[in-house]
Write a structure and sequence with these properties.
Layout (H helix, E strand, L loop, with lengths): L7 H11 L3 H13 L3 H22 L14 H10 L6 H19 L15 H13 L3 H21 L4 H4 L1 H19 L4 H14 L16 H20 L8 H14 L16 H16 L1
Length: 297
C-alpha cells in the first residue's frame, strides 16, 4: 500500500475499494512509515487525546485567565449556562462550544494543549471528539481512531494549501481544524470515507476567505471565539452530509481554491495584526493597554 497525503480523493478511493474506514487505512500506512506496530501508533494518539481531554477540563475553570488579561472565563460561563439549562441549542452543541472555548482559552493562558493543527485552532478538534464521546456515547478507542482520520485531512490541507494563519489567513487554521473535525464526526457517526470527504469540502467552503487578524498580535481575540464557531461549523457540515447532502465541488478542488484565496490575501490580513479587527480603534486601545502592562511589570 502506497499513498501520499496530497489527494483526499486518492485516499478515499483506496479506503472505499478495500471496504475500510479512513482511519483504518491511515493507521496501516502510519505503522508502515514509522516502522512500528499499529498498537504503538494508537498509543501515541491515545496520549494526544489524553492531553486534549485534560486541556478541556482545565480550561473550564473560573479562574482561567490569559497573561494579557484579554481572554479567560468564557468557557466557565458557557458550562454554567449548560448546567442551569439556559442554552438555546442543548447540551450537544453548547457542550461543543464550551469545550472548544475551554481548550482555546487554556492555550492563551499558557496551558498544555495539542496543536490541532495549530495552537490558534487547538480547541475545535478536541471539542468535536470529546463531545461525541460524552454526548453520543462513542468509545475512547473510536475517538482515537477518528484522530487518525482528522490528522490525514490536516496533512492533505497542509501539503496542498496551508494550515498557517500567517500564510493563508484564519481559513487555514480554523478552516483546516473545522474540516478535520467534520471528517472525524462523520466517521464516528458511521459515515463512509466519501461522506467524510464531502464534510471536509463543506466545512472549508463555509469558512473560505476568513482572515487572520489577532488583536495585539496575540492568539486570543478573535481567535478563541472562532474556535467555538469552528466546531459549530464542523457539526453543521457533518450533519448536512449525514443527511445525504453532498458538496458539488470535489474536496481537492476546494483545497486548491483555499490556497488561491490565501495567496491573494493582503499581508495585513495574514496574522500581522495590521488589518481587519486588529485595526479597529478598540483593538488598538487594547493593544496599548496590554503592552503598557507588560512594560510596567
Amino acid at each position: 500500500m502506497e499513498f501520499t497525503y496530497h489527494s483526499l480523493q486518492e485516499i478515499v478511493e483506496m479506503a472505499e475499494n478495500r471496504g475500510m474506514k479512513l482511519s483504518e487505512l491511515v493507521l496501516m500506512e502510519q505503522a508502515n512509515v514509522l516502522e512500528c506496530s499499529q498498537q504503538e501508533v494508537l498509543e501515541r494518539m491515545r496520549e494526544q487525546y489524553k492531553v486534549m481531554k485534560q486541556a478541556e477540563l482545565k480550561g473550564q475553570k473560573k479562574n482561567v485567565k490569559s497573561t494579557s488579561g484579554l481572554t479567560g472565563g468564557d468557557a466557565y460561563k458557557i458550562k454554567k449556562a449548560i448546567d442551569e439549562g439556559r442554552t438555546l441549542s442543548g447540551s450537544f452543541l453548547a457542550g461543543a462550544l464550551m469545550r472548544a472555548t475551554a481548550v482555546s482559552e487554556l492555550n492563551a493562558a499558557m496551558g498544555k494543549i495539542v496543536a490541532a493543527p495549530t495552537a490558534g485552532s487547538c480547541g475545535i478538534l478536541p471539542a468535536a471528539l470529546i463531545t461525541m464521546q460524552e454526548e453520543k456515547g462513542v468509545s475512547e478507542d473510536e475517538c482515537i481512531m477518528a484522530l487518525l482520520t482528522a490528522s490525514a485531512i490536516g496533512m492533505i490541507i497542509a501539503n496542498n494549501a496551508s494550515i498557517a494563519g500567517a500564510e493563508g489567513g484564519c481559513q487555514a487554521e480554523c478552516g483546516a481544524a473545522s474540516a478535520m473535525a467534520a471528517a472525524a464526526i462523520v466517521e464516528l457517526s458511521g459515515g463512509t470515507p466519501t461522506q467524510c470527504a464531502h464534510a471536509v469540502a463543506i466545512a472549508l467552503k463555509n469558512i473560505m476567505g476568513l482572515v487572520c487578524d489577532p488583536v495585539a498580535g496575540l492568539v486570543e481575540i478573535p481567535c478563541v471565539k472562532r474556535n467555538a464557531s469552528g466546531v459549530a461549523n464542523a457539526i453543521t457540515s457533518a450533519e448536512l452530509v449525514l443527511c445525504g447532502v453532498k458538496s458539488a465541488i470535489p474536496t481537492d478542488e476546494v483545497i486548491e481554491a483555499m490556497a488561491e484565496v490565501g495567496n491573494k490575501m493582503d499581508v495585513s490580513l495574514r496574522e500581522t495584526a495590521e488589518g481587519g479587527l486588529a485595526n479597529c480603534p478598540t483593538a488598538k486601545l487594547l493593544c496599548r493597554k496590554v503592552f503598557a502592562c507588560k512594560e510596567t511589570e
